[in-house]
C-alpha cells in the first residue's frame, strides 16, 4: 500500500510538471522524478512471469531465475507458479515447466498439491521418457501423491497400448487401495477397446460395481460400444436401459450418438436416424463439438438433409466458426458427393476467414482431383496462391496424384519438385505408387540422367523402393550404362531383391562379362552375385 501511495505521489508530481512548470530548473527536477517513476513501473511490469516467459533454452534454466528472484527479497506464491507453468505447457516449453515444478517442490515455503505432482509426472514423460517417470512415481513419498500421479502414467500405457504394464499398475493401485476413481477404469476400458479385447470391458464394469466405483457417462458409453462389437445391438440396448435407470448420470448427446452408431453398424438406418434426432435435442449452444460429431454420423448415414440442418443450427453457437469446423462440414459433403454445396460453403469460409488456411482449400482441391476435374484443380490452386495460401505437403500430394492419374507427367514432376523441401525435412512422403509412376515415366522416355538424379534424391531422402530401382536397372540395361552406383545404393537402402531384380542383375552381370573378359567377377551363373560386386566398363553417364 505504501508503495502504491509513493507511486501515485510521483505521478502527481509529473502531472504538475506537465501542466504548470514554474521554472526550467523545477521542470527538469520533476521530469527527473518522472524518469525514476517510469523505472519503477518498468520493474513492476518486468516481474517473474515475464522473465521466465522470455527465457530461451540457451539462456539458462527456470530454477536459477526463480532462486535469484527469491534471493533478491521478492515473494512468490504457489498459485503464481502454477499459472506460469500452464503458460509454459501451452507453448510446449515442457522442459522449462518441469524445472519450475521441480524447484517449487524443493522450496519448503511453497505448498505442492497432488495435482502439481501429476502434472510433473506428465512432463517427465514428455521430457525424459517413461523410465524416469516410473522412477519418479515409485519414489513418491505417500499414497495421496501416488493416487494423483497414477492417471497420467496409466494414460501413457494406454496410449502405447501396453496392456501388460497397464494391468500391472492397476493391480498395484488396487492392492494399495488407490483404485477409487472411475477415470482409471475408463482408461483400462479404452485400452481394451483399442486392442480389440472387447470381452474384457464387461469385466472392468463388474470390478467397478464390486468395489462401489460409480460409473460415469464415459463408462457407460465405452461399455455400450464394447457390447456392440462383441454381442450386438441387443446387448448395447441393455446397457443403455441400465444407464437410464442410473440416477447418478444424465444421458446426453454422446450416449445417444454411441447408440446411433451401434444401429448404423448393424444396418438399422431408421433406428439410427431416430436416435440422432433425439440426440439433437440434447445439444448445447455453448459448443459446436456435439453438432459436428452428429454431422459426421448423418454423413455416414448418407443423410444430406441432416448434415445441412445441423450445420445451420451450429451457427447459433457463439464465437467464430473455425477452419477446423469448416473442414469437417466440407469433408462430410464431399463424402456425400455434393460438390455444389461444398463449393458454396467453401466460398462462405473464404468470405469470412481472417487468415487463409490451406487445409480448408485442400479439401475442395482433393474433391476435384478425385472426380478427375483437373482444370478446376489447377484453377483453384492458382486462386489459393493469389489469396496468400501457403501450400503444404497435402497440396503437392493432391496435385501430383491428379496429374499422374491423367498422365500429365511433366506437371506431376513439377508438383513433386515443389514438394522437395518438405520431403527433405521428413514432412512429406509421396505415395509409393506416385513415386514409381515418375520413375517409370523416365524409363519410358529413356531419360537416363533424369532417372538417375531422381533416384539419387529418393535415396538421400530415405524413400527409394524396389520398384524404382528395378525401373532404373531396366533403363540402364537398355542404355548399356554402368549400374555399380545404383547397386551400391540398393545395398545401403537394404533393398530385398525379388526374382525379377535378381534376374536383372544376372543379365547385367552377363553383359558386363561379355564386354570385358578380364572382369574379376565370378562367371559361374549359378553363383549369386552380390549387387555391390557388379562392375562394368560400359560408357559412363554424361555429367
Automatic annotation (TrEMBL):
GO cellular component, one term: mitochondrion
Record carries keyword Repeat: yes
Organism superkingdom: Eukaryota
Keywords carried by this UniProt record: Repeat
Source species of the chain: Dillenia turbinata
GO molecular-function terms, A-Z: mRNA binding
Pfam families noted in UniProt: PPR
Official protein name in the record: Pentatricopeptide repeat
Homology family: Belongs to the PPR family. P subfamily.
Amino acid at each position: 500500500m505504501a508503495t502504491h501511495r509513493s507511486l501515485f505521489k510521483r505521478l502527481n508530481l509529473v502531472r504538475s510538471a506537465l501542466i504548470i512548470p514554474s521554472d526550467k530548473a523545477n521542470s527538469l527536477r520533476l521530469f527527473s522524478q518522472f524518469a525514476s517513476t517510469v523505472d519503477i513501473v518498468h520493474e513492476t511490469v518486468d516481474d517473474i512471469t515475464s522473465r521466465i516467459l522470455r527465457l530461451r533454452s540457451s539462456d539458462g534454466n527456470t530454477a536459477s531465475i526463480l532462486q535469484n528472484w527469491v534471493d533478491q527479497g521478492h515473494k512468490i506464491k504457489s498459485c503464481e507458479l502454477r499459472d506460469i507453468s500452464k503458460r509454459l505447457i501451452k507453448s510446449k516449453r515442457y522442459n522449462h515447466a518441469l524445472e519450475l515444478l521441480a524447484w517449487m517442490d524443493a522450496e519448503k515455503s511453497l505448498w505442492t498439491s497432488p495435482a502439481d505432482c501429476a502434472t510433473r509426472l506428465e512432463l517427465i514423460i514428455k521430457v525424459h521418457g517413461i523410465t524416469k517417470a516410473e522412477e519418479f512415481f515409485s519414489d513418491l513419498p505417500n499414497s495421496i501423491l501416488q493416487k494423483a500421479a497414477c492417471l497420467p502414467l496409466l494414460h501413457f500405457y494406454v496410449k502405447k497400448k501396453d496392456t501388460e504394464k497397464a494391468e500391472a499398475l492397476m493391480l498395484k493401485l488396487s492392492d494399495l487401495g488407490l483404485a477409487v476413481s472411475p477415470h482409471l477404469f475408463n482408461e483400462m476400458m479404452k485400452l481394451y477397446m483399442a486392442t480389440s479385447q472387447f470381452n474384457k470391458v464387461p469385466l472392468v464394469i463388474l470390478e467397478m460395481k464390486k468395489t462401489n466405483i460409480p460409473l460415469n457417462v464415459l463408462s457407460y458409453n465405452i461399455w455400450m460400444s464394447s457390447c456392440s462389437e462383441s454381442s450386438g445391438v441387443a446387448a448395447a440396448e441393455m446397457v443403455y436401459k441400465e444407464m437410464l435407470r442410473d440416477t447418478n448420470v444424465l444421458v446426453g448427446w454422446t450416449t445417444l450418438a454411441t447408440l446411433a452408431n451401434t444401429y448404423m453398424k448393424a444396418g438399422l438406418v431408421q433406428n439410427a436416424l431416430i436416435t440422432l434426432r433425439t440426440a439433437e435435442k440434447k445439444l448445447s449452444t455453448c459448443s459446436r463439438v456435439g453438432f459436428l460429431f452428429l454431422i459426421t454420423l448423418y454423413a455416414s448415414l448418407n443423410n444430406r438433409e441432416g448434415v445441412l440442418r445441423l450445420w445451420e443450427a451450429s451457427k447459433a453457437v457463439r464465437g467464430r466458426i473455425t477452419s477446423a469446423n469448416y473442414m469437417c462440414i466440407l469433408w462430410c459433403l464431399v463424402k456425400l458427393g455434393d460438390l455444389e454445396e461444398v463449393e458454396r460453403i467453401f466460398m462462405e469460409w473464404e468470405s469470412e476467414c481472417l487468415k487463409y488456411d490451406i487445409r480448408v482449400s485442400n479439401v475442395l482441391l482433393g474433391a476435384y482431383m478425385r472426380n478427375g476435374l483437373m482444370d478446376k484443380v489447377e484453377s483453384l490452386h492458382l486462386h489459393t496462391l493469389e489469396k496468400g495460401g501457403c501450400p503444404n505437403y497435402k497440396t503437392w500430394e493432391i496435385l501430383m496424384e491428379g496429374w499422374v492419374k491423367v498422365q500429365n507427367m511433366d506437371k506431376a514432376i513439377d508438383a513433386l519438385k515443389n514438394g522437395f523441401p518438405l520431403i527433405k525435412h521428413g514432412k512429406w512422403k509421396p505415395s509409393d505408387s506416385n513415386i514409381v509412376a515418375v520413375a517409370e515415366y523416365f524409363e519410358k522416355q529413356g531419360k537416363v540422367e533424369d532417372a538417375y538424379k531422381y533416384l539419387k534424391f529418393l535415396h538421400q531422402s530415405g524413400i527409394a523402393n524396389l520398384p524404382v530401382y528395378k525401373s532404373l536397372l531396366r533403363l540402364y540395361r537398355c542404355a548399356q550404362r554402368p549400374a555399380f552406383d545404383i547397386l551400391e545404393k540398393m545395398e545401403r537402402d537394404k533393398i530385398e531383391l525379388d526374382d525379377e531384380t535378381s534376374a536383372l542383375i544376372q543379365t547385367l552381370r552377363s553383359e558386363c562379362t561379355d564386354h570385358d573378359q578380364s572382369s574379376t567377377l565370378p562367371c559361374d551363373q549359378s553363383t549369386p552375385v552380390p549387387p555391390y560386386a557388379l562392375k562394368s566398363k560400359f560408357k559412363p553417364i554424361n555429367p
